[in-house]
């Protein structure tokens, strides 16, 4: 399983390097308060990374956190009757 993860990570790195190498045109990104001169390939990869991180945060906020709260509530309800019956 670990070998498959390493192969997948290497394939993603190789794909990123290929995209970066094929898109060497200079671009300037205007952030409103600053201009960032960079290559198109780097800009594409950074935009993709930001999108993946934003999607992960959205899924975490909408699914993972409510499920953790529900699990903690269920664990509290399960342990509360056991401590009362022991008294």
Descriptive report:
The chain crosses the membrane at residues 40-67. Pfam families: LapA_dom (PF06305). InterPro entries: LapA_dom. With 87 residues, the protein is mainly α. It has one domain (2-85). It has helices at 2-22, 40-85, and strands at residues 26-30, 35-39. The chain has a two-stranded antiparallel sheet. The radius of gyration is 23 Å and the shape is elongated.
* Radius of gyration computed on alpha carbons: 23 Å
Major sheet attributes: 2 strands, antiparallel
Question: Which stretches are poorly predicted, pLDDT < 50 over at least 5 residues?
Answer: none
Bin the strand percentage: 5-15%
The averaged pLDDT comes out at: 90
Q: What does the overall shape look like?
A: elongated
Strand order of the largest sheet: 1-2
In whole angstroms, the N-to-C terminal distance is 48 Å
| Count of runs of 4 or more consecutive helical residues | 2
Task: Estimate nothing, just give the exact number of structural domains.
Answer: 1
Estimated structural class: mainly alpha
Helix % is: over 70%
Strand segment tally: 2
List the secondary-structure elements in sequence, H or E.
Answer: HEEH
Domain Lipopolysaccharide assembly protein A: 23-78
Transmembrane segments: 40-67
InterPro entries: LapA_dom
Protein name: Lipopolysaccharide assembly protein A domain-containing protein
